[in-house]
From TrEMBL:
Skewed-composition ranges (Polar residues): 238-249
Domain Exonuclease: 5-176
Protein name: DNA polymerase III subunit epsilon
UniProt GO molecular function: exonuclease activity; nucleic acid binding
Region (Disordered): 226-249
Species in which this protein is naturally found: Tianweitania populi
GO biological process: DNA metabolic process
Amino acid sequence: MPLPPIRVIDLETAGNGPHHVCEIGWQDVAQGSDGRWHVNEERGALLVNPGRPILPDTMAVHHIIDADVADAPFWKTIASSVLRPEKGVLALAAHRAAFEQRYCTPRFTGNADWICTWKCALRLWPHLPRFSNQMLRYQRMPEGLVREIGLPAHRAMPDAYVTAHHLRDMLNEASAEQLIAWSREPGLLPRVPAGPERGKSWNRLSSDVLQAFARDRDTDIRFTAQTELTRRGEFTGPAQSQPDQTSLF
């Protein structure tokens, strides 16, 4: 029997506060009778009243203005209906899911598991030069992605639709359980993202350089350096706990 669907979520916000969502979009990815995963027709978007004026900086990204959301429901009213559909979901997913998780808290999700397609892309497609949602779209050109449905970029439903195509392909390469497990860890970066060693793969770095990276302030850099040191049998420090993924790559 096919597994329950996975719902991809994307949010647009008015600012950085804990309830400042101004739009939620979703797109489901479902398993067929053949065992393969597919992007289905279950998608949509709802405007949300953030309870505060939308910042010009964020208007310039998504082009949602105060008048658009003046009569929309508040986040606490609408969130659970999208995040906990009656038919249920195997997990929720988002690109850089830590951002969505700031707003889609267990109160609204019912403690659903999450898949971060950014973290999974680092694992499955490390050869790619960049890993943003839209860069993956054009680097990979996923089969079946209808360009018009995926536009405009930086609106909730089109972005969720694009992410869903990445997720579909990931699920057809690795199990949902594996994607969830990777998503619980920091990002495993395929190359050094900045500094004098920028662009180098981690296995090319000396142990001394890796030891320095293993103490870096950035969660993903620390985790990746520690992983390479562990592979070499040279890591002696305590394993780091898992904080929210917030840094950009």
